[in-house]
Input
Amino acid sequence: MFFLAFCVAIGMISCSINEPTWPGMPDCRMIQIDSLGWFWEEECPRNIDAAALSVQTDKIRLHFYGWEADEDSLFTVSFPTNTDQYGRVLLEYKMCGWNAGPAEWDMTTMIKIHDKANDQWLEFVRAITPYGGSFGANWEKIFYIDVTEFLPLLKGDTEFRIFYCGWDATDKRAHAVQLTYLFFEGQNPYGKPCGQQKIYDSTLPNDGGNGYRAWSYGVKGWPIEDDSRLGKRTINAPAGTKRILVRVCITGHGQDAYNGDGKFPNRTNTYSESCAEFDHNWYDVVLNGDTMVQRGDIWEINTGVNNYKQAGTYRYNRAGWGPGKPCNIHHWIIRDIRTGGEKLTLDLNLDEYISPCTKPNDDKVACYYVMADAFFFK
Output
C-alpha cells in the first residue's frame, strides 16, 4: 500500500502522460496506481502558491438534509467557461466548525458533482467528520485531493450537492467544510479527456440498500454481488480512447452487531466481529472475465501518526476511512484500448459474507458505500 501511494505521488509531480511504471509492476491490462487519493496538508506534493487559478466556496454548515437525493443540499460554483489551459486540479478540503466548533460525531459526508453533458451525478469527494466535541471555534484541518479527472466538468456554473449522514448539528456546534479548487497550468497527465461514465453508485434507489445510501452486505436474498448492485457492468469507451481511469471509493460501515455471528465461508478465520466497519476486506477486479493480479484493499490505518488526536475511537483502523479524514480513493488504469472504441466488462467482487441479519435495512446490518466511475482519455 505504501509503495502504490509513493508511485502516485511521483506521478502527481510529473506531467508525463506515459503509463506509470515501477519495478515489479503487474503485466495486466488494468493496474492500480493509487490506493489513497488524498494528502495531509504538509505532505501535498504540489506548491499550492503556484496554482494559476483558485476558486473557493463559502463555509458550508453540515447537517442532516434528508435521505432522498432530492433532499440533498445544493450549491453552485462558478468556474471560467473555458478551463482547457489547465492540466491538473487539486481540491483543498478544509474541515472546520460552525460557531463554537465542530459537532461531536464521525459522520459520512458525500459531495457529488453534476455531469451536465450526461445529466448524471458523480461522486466528487467523500469524507468523514472528526469526533469534534473537544475542538474549539478556531479548529480546522486541511487535506488535498487530486481531482484532475473532473477537469472537463469544472467549467461555468457547476452544481454540487451534499449528503450528510448525521443528526448531531445544533445552532451552537456543527461540522462545516470549505472547498477550494486549485487549477494548475500544464499537460493533463492522463491525456486529453473525452468523456466519463458512471459504473457503480450505491446511493441510487435499490431494494438491497440499507436505507442510508449504502448496499447491505451478506443478507440472504439481497446479495451485494447482484446485477443491480455490485454485479458486472459494461464500460463503453469512445473511439480514440487510449486509456481509462477508473476511480473507486468503497467504505465499510455498520457492525452487524449480533455477537460476531456473521461468517466469511471462504476465509480461514470465518467468523467476523463488527463487520463491515472494522473488517479488513478486499475486492477482486474482473476485466472482460479475467481476474486482475492486484486486489483492492478496503482498509485505512488510523493508529499512531496516521490520525490526529480527537475524541472517540479515532485510533481504530477502519474499512477505507478514518474519523476526521477524506475516504480512500483507488485509481485504476485500463490500457490498450482499441482505436475505434471498445466495450469492456468490469466486475468488482467482495469476499462472500453471510450475515445474521434477515433484511437489508436492519438497524444492525453491515453495509458498503460504493462509488466507481470511468474517465476516458485520448
In short: Confidence is low (pLDDT under 50) at residues 1-17. The longest helix spans residues 2-13. The two ends are 29 Å apart (CA to CA).
